[in-house]
From TrEMBL:
The gene is Letm1_1. One of its GO terms (cellular component) is mitochondrial inner membrane. The chain crosses the membrane at residues 58-81. It comes from Casuarius casuarius. Keywords: Membrane, Mitochondrion, Mitochondrion inner membrane, Transmembrane, Transmembrane helix. This is LETM1 protein. It holds the Pfam family LETM1_RBD. GO terms for biological process: intracellular monoatomic cation homeostasis. It is a single-pass membrane protein. GO terms for molecular function: ribosome binding. InterPro entries: LETM1-like_RBD (IPR033122), LETM1/MDM38-like (IPR044202).
Amino acid sequence: GKKSLRQKIVDELKHYYNGFHLLWIDTKVAARMLWRLLHGQVLTRRERRRLLRTCADLFRLVPFLVFVIVPFMEFLLPVFLKMFPEMLPSTFETESKKEEKQKKRLNAKLELAKFLQETIAEMAKRNKADTG
């Protein structure tokens, strides 16, 4: 059924607590990777992507903190999130948003694959006509 207002507030607070906690963990790991990078070690592709994502999350945190610090501005947060959906750091995303992004990426990849298949088929027809 429906959740009470108190339960919704508690769930939202847990969501933000977990988001900040995950961001803190990511920041510590990124700091270690940055230290290794500054001392001449090479990062793997996965580590580099994680470092870039964490840096982007820290830059996204600045406008997000304005909403948290300024009184009553958190009521405008949903409006700004509709206008700028990528404003929140990645650790604050819900599962439904992650699934939605994944579906969009998959659809884009499928469209690209279909285009490439059509292109290759057209090139094969041309080559066959040229050689035949």
